[in-house]
TrEMBL record:
Keywords: Cell wall biogenesis/degradation, Lyase, Signal. The gene is rlpA. CDD domains: DPBB_RlpA-like. Residues 25-113 form the RlpA-like protein double-psi beta-barrel domain. Its EC number is 4.2.2.-. Residues 1-24 form the signal peptide. Pfam families: DPBB_1. Lytic transglycosylase with a strong preference for naked glycan strands that lack stem peptides. This is Endolytic peptidoglycan transglycosylase RlpA. The lineage of its organism: Bacteria, Pseudomonadati, Pseudomonadota, Alphaproteobacteria, Hyphomicrobiales. InterPro entries: RlpA, RlpA-like_DPBB, RlpA-like_sf, RplA.
Length: 117
């Protein structure tokens, strides 16, 4: 019988790679800002509608995401600093600035794919 000895460092590295595995999801996106600007986000930082930030229900604060608008192919990068959205079918709420960069601010919602970077 052959036994392989695995070091604690190897186990820790394997667990770390599992916890930082890439995340991807597609669904609806909306934006928010007016009425929230200057107030505390769920992360504890002050919400700035002009920053490239977003709200997600479960991703850790500080997570960086690439957001791709499925209609136009435009891509942006945002940082998760808040919780939401709380409307069915939506996977992310973007700041006013992020929605403007993607070009859907006037429509209010769009379809996106998000992936952790």
């Amino acid at each position: 019988m052959i036994r392989k000895v695995v070091s604690a460092a190897a186990i820790a590295a394997a667990l770390l790679s599992l916890s930082t595995a890439a995340y991807a999801q597609c669904g609806g996106a909306s934006w928010y800002g007016p009425g929230f600007n200057g107030k505390k986000a769920a992360s504890g930082e002050t919400f700035n509608e002009n920053a490239m930030t977003a709200a997600h229900r479960s991703l850790p604060f500080g997570t960086k995401l690439r957001v791709t608008d499925q209609r136009t192919g435009r891509q942006i990068q945002v940082t998760i600093n808040d919780r939401g959205p709380y409307i069915g079918g939506r996977i992310i709420d973007l700041s006013k600035a992020a929605a403007g960069q993607l070009g859907f601010r006037n429509r209010g919602t769009t379809s996106v794919c998000i992936e952790q970077i």
